[in-house]
Design goal:
This protein is an alpha/beta fold. It has one domain: TIM Barrel (Alpha-Beta Barrel). It contains 9 helices and 12 strands. Strands 3-2-1-9-10 form a 5-stranded mixed sheet. Strands 4-5-6 form a 3-stranded antiparallel sheet, sandwiched between helices. A two-stranded parallel ribbon has the order 7-8.
């Protein structure tokens, strides 16, 4: 099966102009079997899909629920939670440290892996504080995004090396925000995937089932602004730290609520209830 595992849609991401219906249409035209919605720090796009879109499309095209979480110290991390898990509100509040995020997601039967792990400073794991100072932490991820259509070729090559060194499954996606970049990155999976639980089980038990690749999109913001992109990355880092600090109390309260409803067994992993 063929999926785009990294998509941003207009109904969920403020920086996207790509409508979900159009994204699905373009993916189907290129032979994709599904996509995963991975908006930044929000499930709004997924909620739009469930309310407005799901019933209008064939069940043969699979739309998965994901999220791209902005950590305080580890860049952008793709997260997939079990099908029966309610969309955890705390994952819509940016700013957890990557170690906290790993514990939270694994403790509830989910999986996670770094988006564009060898890309821009502050946004990518290996070029963020956690990756630079705690490289061993990468082994705690469940998969690595090794192809991103909006990344430079050498960054994807380095990500593929990281995945091989850690023996992790490879994810690929378009990272699409515009119509022109839709359906340019893919993940091929040799197992049948019908929902998030299938994907989680496959990642944990059939690592060899994944292959990633695609085409490169050459009209990204960083290619457009050129040398100014370093200033953009620095500005994002400052913004991310500021918002993380401002929302720390809210995030702490949501984490406490989530701990009280912590599950015991999910998708083959066992956890002790607190």
């Amino acid at each position: 099966m063929k999926f785009d595992m990294h998509c941003h849609i207009a109904e969920g991401s403020v920086d996207s102009t790509l409508p979900l219906r159009k994204n699905i249409e373009l993916c189907r035209e290129k032979g994709y079997d599904g996509l995963m919605i991975t908006d930044h720090d929000t499930y709004s796009g997924w909620r739009y899909y469930e309310k407005e879109v799901r019933d209008g499309f064939s069940p043969d095209f699979i739309v998965l629920r994901g999220i791209e979480y902005d950590t305080r110290d580890g860049g952008h991390i793709l997260v997939v939670m079990p099908t029966d898990a309610k969309s955890p509100h705390v994952l819509e509040i940016r700013g957890m440290k990557v170690a906290e995020l790993i514990e939270f997601v694994h403790g509830r039967g989910g999986i996670l892996g770094p988006a564009h792990p060898c890309g821009e400073p502050f946004m990518s794991f290996t070029h963020a504080a956690a990756g630079r100072h705690n490289a061993f932490m990468a082994d705690q991820f469940d998969f690595i995004e090794t192809f991103n259509s909006c990344e430079y070729q050498h960054c994807n090559a380095d990500a593929a090396i990281l995945a091989r060194e850690l023996s992790k499954p490879c994810f690929g996606g378009s990272d699409s925000h515009r119509i022109g970049s839709a359906a340019m990155g893919w993940t091929e999976i040799s197992e049948e995937i019908r929902n998030e639980d299938d994907l989680i089980r496959c990642v944990l038990n059939h690592k060899e089932a994944f292959r990633a690749g695609g085409e490169y999109y050459h009209h990204t913001t960083k290619e457009t602004v050129g040398q100014l992109n370093s200033l953009f990355s620095l500005s994002f880092g400052a913004y991310n730290r500021t918002v993380s600090l401002l929302r720390s109390h809210e995030r702490h309260e949501e984490l406490e609520k989530a701990e009280k409803s912590r599950g015991v067994i999910h998708c083959g992993r066992h956890y002790t209830e607190i």
